[in-house]
Design a protein that fits this description.
heterodimer, A: 278 residues, alpha+beta, Sortase, Chain: A, eight-stranded mixed beta barrel, 4 helices, 8 strands, 34% helix, B: 58 residues, mainly alpha, 69% helix
Chain lengths: 278, 58
């Protein structure tokens, strides 16, 4: 009788532990993705709503501002009074200079968005036609559950320096699962609601140590970039399910266009365009 | 363990089955809502930054 009770309790415990493990796996692999995808979609939706509301109110003023910037050609260091006006002007100067060389003038740095708040949407056509993720300020665990995280203290989108962004490779919607698929020439498009920033990937994804903070420097030593410029860094974990290394992708700013002029070429062309995989 | 719980549930078989179902659902809810979100960061899927120690403090 006693033996039977012990054996039964023991097997019941084993079954319970097994069920717990299965539930944990379901949570990690499936449920975090469900939650994160809905959180990311709502962040993107909220941003787009805020931007369209802002555009509706400020579009008449923004048009001439963008045009003036384009006519000037040379980067203007003046601060426009309204936020939308500044962005429009910045966009105008960007298109005027075309590709930004090492001698590009420094853009005055804006104050960073509040921590944990989304401020941009990133598109990477290589990772999927509908791949659009919000970029939030900060890289804390809770921030990365709702989208990509912008490293505190690094440059903003389009600014001189390094716009460094981290994201989950696995779990929480697997946003950067296919990061190793990126290759030289792939576009990474970022928008802050007023401007499209089209970055172009340089080189193959780079594997490094987990503490290699040099990869998010304004001019990352191992990236091959030599002078100051407008760069983008994506970081995620490597290997896919581990944390022994980090996977890094670098890109440089190729073009900026005001949102009013429609989507940039990189988002309109099918993946079979110039960014076709070999 | 499970037999002991079953014997201590009130009502007839139907009521007991219903209460068991509710209990199971409640436990799954508590796990997904509170226990797993706490346990998940202990797994190695969250380390996606190159300045981990700093990111945690932020």
């Amino acid at each position: 009788m006693g033996t039977r009770l012990v054996v039964r309790t023991l097997s019941e415990l084993c079954v319970t532990v097994g069920t717990l493990i299965v539930l944990l796996v379901v949570y990690v692999l499936y449920w975090t993705g469900v939650r994160a995808n809905s959180a990311m979609d709502s962040e993107v939706h909220r941003l787009q709503e805020r931007w369209s509301a802002a555009a509706g109110g400020q579009l008449p003023g923004q048009g001439p501002g963008a045009q003036a910037g384009g006519n000037n050609g040379a980067p203007a260091g003046t601060d426009a009074p309204a936020g939308a006006g500044t962005a429009g002007q910045g966009a105008g100067t960007g298109t005027g200079t075309g590709s930004t060389g090492p001698g590009a003038k420094t853009v005055p740095r804006k104050s960073p968005p509040p921590s944990g708040k989304s401020f941009a949407v990133m598109y990477i056509p290589r990772l999927g036609r509908s791949w659009a993720k919000p970029v939030l300020q900060g890289t804390g665990t809770d921030v990365l559950k709702k989208g990509l995280g912008h490293y505190d203290g690094t440059a903003g989108p389009g600014e001189t320096g390094n716009f460094a962004v981290a994201g989950h490779r696995r779990t929480y919607g697997d946003p950067l699962k296919d990061l190793p698929e990126l290759r030289s020439g792939d576009p990474v498009v970022v928008t802050d609601g007023t401007t499209w920033f089209t970055y172009v990937v340089d080189g193959a994804p780079f594997t490094t140590r987990p503490d290699d903070v040099g990869v998010i420097d304004p001019v990352p030593a191992e990236s091959g970039y030599r002078g100051p410029g407008r760069y983008l860094t994506l970081t995620t974990c490597e290997p896919e399910w581990g944390h022994s290394h980090r996977l890094i992708v670098w890109a440089h700013l190729d073009a900026t266009e005001p949102v009013a002029e429609g989507k940039p070429k990189a988002l309109l062309s099918r993946p079979t365009g110039p960014f076709r995989s070999p | 363990m499970y037999g002991w719980i079953w014997r201590h549930l009130p009502g007839n078989t139907g009521v007991r089955a219903l209460i068991s179902l509710v209990l199971v659902l409640a436990i799954v809810y508590i796990l997904f809502q509170y226990v797993f979100p706490w346990a998940e960061p202990l797994l190695p899927f969250n380390d996606v930054t190159v300045d981990n120690g700093m990111a945690v403090n932020r």
